[in-house]
Design brief:
alpha/beta; eight-stranded parallel sheet; 9 helices
């Protein structure tokens, strides 16, 4: 059985001492690929280097996370943009030495502060435009800002190649609002396994099985029975198990379906 962790920050300092062992455990657990999102310019560059070391298993994204948006965001974005192709690449991703898989992690986050609200809006829209230009999908982070995010995406809905709404924890109404963007899927991680989570009921009721992908968001939000510990990509197996139970299918079927979903959205063969 093979599956994909579509969102893991394995470049982080939390993995500095045992990164190789973490990646080995992911392989042993059945993980066929790990997608690594950036949060700023230094991480975008570092992730490209890291993914070269694990070519064909780690796949990089580049982008500016909303919580990292500051007054100098335009200058930062200009530097990140130089890492991306100017036009869609004619060679399939899997045949490129270190393919940039997506633009991410990008989005809006007003949970802690609205100090840079307008800057976040502009930074997000600029990166949405990059997606249209490059045909690279988006990895979208959104917290306490779904209305604003949807408003921006609607302007580009016909042109966008697709992407993932990362860390979905919402209700049926919120799921329906996101699924109106028909080339996007919902990323679901460890919250699915939490005792008080409503996702085991919401997902099969509101989200078709071909509109969902697995993720861990390592090192954050470890699933049960590892809750409270450092999360890692091997634990996506726990998310897979709970998701299969929720949809009433085998883990093998869920692994195969979510992998097909990944290949469709990211235009990559796992």
């Amino acid at each position: 059985m093979r599956f994909v962790d579509t969102h893991a920050h394995v470049d982080g300092e939390e993995f500095a001492e045992d990164r190789e062992a973490v990646i080995a455990r992911a392989r042993e657990a059945g993980c066929a690929a790990i997608f690594v999102p950036a949060i700023d310019l230094p991480s975008s560059r570092a992730i490209l280097t890291l993914c070269r070391q694990y070519s064909g298993f780690l796949y990089p994204m580049v982008g500016l996370h909303p919580e990292e948006v500051r007054a100098d965001y335009r200058e930062v974005l200009a530097e990140i943009r130089t890492l991306l192709p100017n036009t869609p690449h004619p060679t399939p991703l899997t045949q490129q030495p270190t393919p940039i898989l997506a633009i991410g992690e990008v989005g809006l986050d007003y949970y802690w502060s609205r100090e840079f609200e307008n800057q976040q809006l502009e930074a997000f829209e600029m990166q949405v435009q990059w997606s249209v230009e490059t045909r690279l999908p988006l990895m979208i982070h959104c917290r306490k800002a779904q209305n604003e995010m949807v408003h921006i995406l609607k302007r580009y809905a016909r042109e966008l190649p697709g992407g993932v709404f990362h860390c979905f924890t919402g209700n049926e109404k919120e799921a329906a609002e996101l699924l109106q963007f028909d080339r996007f899927v919902l990323g679901v991680g460890g919250v699915l396994t939490f005792k008080k989570s409503h996702l085991p009921e919401v997902l099969p009721a509101a989200v078709p099985i071909d509109r969902i992908v697995l993720e861990t968001d390592s090192p954050y939000m470890a699933p049960v029975p590892f809750r409270g510990q450092r999360n890692e990509p091997a634990y996506v197996a726990q998310v897979l198990q709970r998701m299969a139970e929720s949809y009433g299918v085998s883990t093998q079927e869920m692994a195969e379906q979510t992998t097909r979903n990944v290949e469709r959205v990211f235009d990559v063969k796992i």
